[in-house]
Amino acid sequence: MKHARIVITGLGLTAPNGNSLAEFRQNLLSGVAGIERLDIRYVGEQLAGVCHYDPLRYQTKKERRVGTRAGSISIYCAREALADSGVNFAAADKDRIGIYIGCTEHGNVETENEIYNISQFGYDTKYWSHYHNPRTVANNPAGEASLNLGVTGPVYTIGAACAAGNLGLIHATQMLRLGEVDFAICGGVSESIHTFGIFAGFKSQNALASHADPHKASRPFDKARNGIVVSEGGALFTLERLEDAQARGAKIYGEIAGYHINSDASDYVLPNPARQTQCVQKAIAHAGLRAADIHIVNTHATSTPLGDIQECEAIRAVFGEGCPDTYINNTKSYIGHCMGAAGALELAGNLPAFDDLTVHPTINVDELDPACALPNLVLNAPRRAARIDTILNNSFGMLGINSALIVKRFVP
User: Fold this and answer.
1) Where in the chain is the domain with CATH 3.40.47.10?
2) Mind telling me the catalytic residues?
């Protein structure tokens, strides 16, 4: 099964600007962002991307009370993806299903809440919740989905900073090719906005975005960009080997074409353009393609002054010449930085381009930073393309982890 073709057959998501692929895609094409003001404990009012899905659609009130926000998002997205896939899940062998969910961090929210709660009682730990440990273990988001779905195969969370969404799909692809599972639920989730620590940390780095209009706060490549908008969200996909998908007549969104993961080994926070360049080049080579064969590059750019420039250096090194049909866009300008869910949501938002031949733009660019100028950078309005057969999704993260994932149009 080493060279088995792996295809995407289902998709479920919740984003700050949509709770289904159709709604999300329409808002990406219409320039509708989803950022709002949110009061954060100890930090005060901040800009954030908040999801407004119905958590009780697939959970009881008790399950929500016992579980976590990341687990709830995982359950919602997994259930939506399964419904979208059309698979007969009730009859499926649950031992042969895997769940692989990328997450930037997990457990901070629950520990912060418990400390705050016992502070109201003189820090008496007898008031500490007995649900704290299962809430904070790293495998919680995937584990909660497993409990809800009854999946008994290999289920775990992948910690890969802000590259985690891509890694969820990459790992699922590998497990399917190894024959370890026959069906995979994979992607990324984030509950980041519910922890004051992440806001305080970025604030101490002067890395939080500010703007009078929340919807314009996340503005990658704009000359006046000033930081990250922290967001929550999730996107999970169902992946299958092609022959299995065809045997049940599944619709196919696209095919996993190639990928690469590497690390900078150079700094805790600052990205390394040379290593990002290498990551993208190796993903393209793994897919058996040339740079000119890539039609959409979805950038990771988070709207930080230096980070955006360094990624643009990497993109320019790969696609700067001889790639007239390569269009470059960004999704964080709509939804902020959904951390572990970022790569998965950004891929999801671009997948419909295989059908509508439209590249959604980067919005909120009032004045392009000359250091971020790239050929075919799509700004503020959608662009029609003569052909869209390949999407390359960049996702990079702290401690120097880089990932690039390529999905191509399915051709039987």
Assistant:
1) 6-248, 257-409
2) 162, 300, 337
d(CA 138, CA 133): 10
Place of tokens 């073709």: 5
Which residues have a Cβ under 8 Å from the Cβ of 377 and sit 6 or more positions away? 221, 328, 329, 362, 368
When the candidates are 3.40.50.300, 3.40.47.10, 3.40.50.2000, 3.30.230.10, the CATH number that belongs to 6-248 is 3.40.47.10
Domain 257-409 sits in which CATH superfamily? Thiolase/Chalcone synthase (3.40.47.10)
DSSP 283-309: HHHHTT--GGG--EEEE---S-HHHHH
Single-letter amino acid, residue 169: L
Residue 126 CB partners (closer than 8 Å, separation 6+) = none
The token pair at 11 is 């998709």
Separation of alpha carbons 16 and 296, rounded Å: 23
Place of tokens 């390359």: 392
Q: Please list the pLDDT of the chain residue by residue as tens digits (412 residues).
A: 778 999 999 999 999 999 999 999 999 999 999 999 999 999 999 999 999 999 999 999 999 999 999 999 999 999 999 999 999 999 999 999 999 999 998 999 999 999 999 999 999 999 999 999 999 999 999 999 999 999 999 999 999 999 999 999 999 999 999 999 999 999 999 999 999 999 999 999 999 999 999 999 999 999 999 999 999 999 999 999 999 999 999 999 999 999 999 999 999 998 999 999 999 999 999 999 999 999 999 999 999 999 999 999 999 999 999 999 999 999 999 999 999 999 999 999 999 999 999 999 999 999 999 999 999 999 999 999 999 999 999 999 999 999 999 999 999 9
**Percent of residues in the chain assigned helix, strand, coil, to nearest 5:** 40, 25, 35
